[in-house]
Amino acid sequence: MPTYEYRCDGCGHEFELFQQMSAPVKKKCPDCTKLKLKRLIGTGSAVMFKGSGFYETDYRSDSYKKAAKAEKESSKPKEKKTESKKTSSSNGKKPKS
Ligand SMILES: [Zn+2]
């Protein structure tokens, strides 16, 4: 389902809406309930929105994969280290009190 961008001419409210291509254009603003909504997509901004959206998803998935991989790789030895470190330090290696 495509995302449509709407803007209300009445109050300036902007929002995105998931709609089916065959769904009628929304007219009523959810904010001020006036029939002043305008669908921004289809006027040229659609290409920009689509492009940036695609890029964002692509970028996110890539960095997400990297982060997930790094986390996976470092979680195994790190867990042990931090755990033993934590226990030893929280056990009171330095008897201050
Ligand atoms: Zn409005």
Features:
97 residues; alpha+beta; Rubrerythrin, domain 2; binds zinc ion
Tell me about this structure.
- By secondary structure, this protein is of the alpha+beta class.
- It has a domain at 1-44: Rubrerythrin, domain 2.
- It contains one helix and three strands, in the order βββα.
- The chain has one helix at residues 45-90; strands at 3-8, 14-18, 37-39.
- The protein has a three-stranded antiparallel beta sheet with strand order 2-1-3, with no helix packed on it.
- β1 (3-8) and β2 form a beta hairpin.
- The longest helix is centred in the last third of the chain and has 46 residues, at 45-90.
- The radius of gyration is 25 Å and the shape is elongated.
- The model is unreliable at 43-48 (pLDDT under 50).
- The site of zinc ion (ZN) has 9 residues, from loops.
The CATH class of the domain at 1-44 turns out to be Mainly Beta
Count the strands? Answer: 3
CATH architecture grouping of the domain at 1-44: Single Sheet
Oligomerization: single chain
Beta content? 5-15%
End-to-end distance: 62 Å
State Rg. Answer: 25 Å
- Helix/strand order: EEEH
Question: What is the arithmetic mean of pLDDT?
Answer: 73
> In which order are the strands of the major sheet placed?
2-1-3
CATH topology of the domain at 1-44: Rubrerythrin, domain 2
Q: How many helix segments?
A: 1
Low-confidence stretches: 43-48
**What ligands can be seen in this structure?**
zinc ion
**Which word captures the global form?**
elongated
Approximate helicity band? 40-55%
What structural class do the secondary elements suggest?
A: alpha+beta
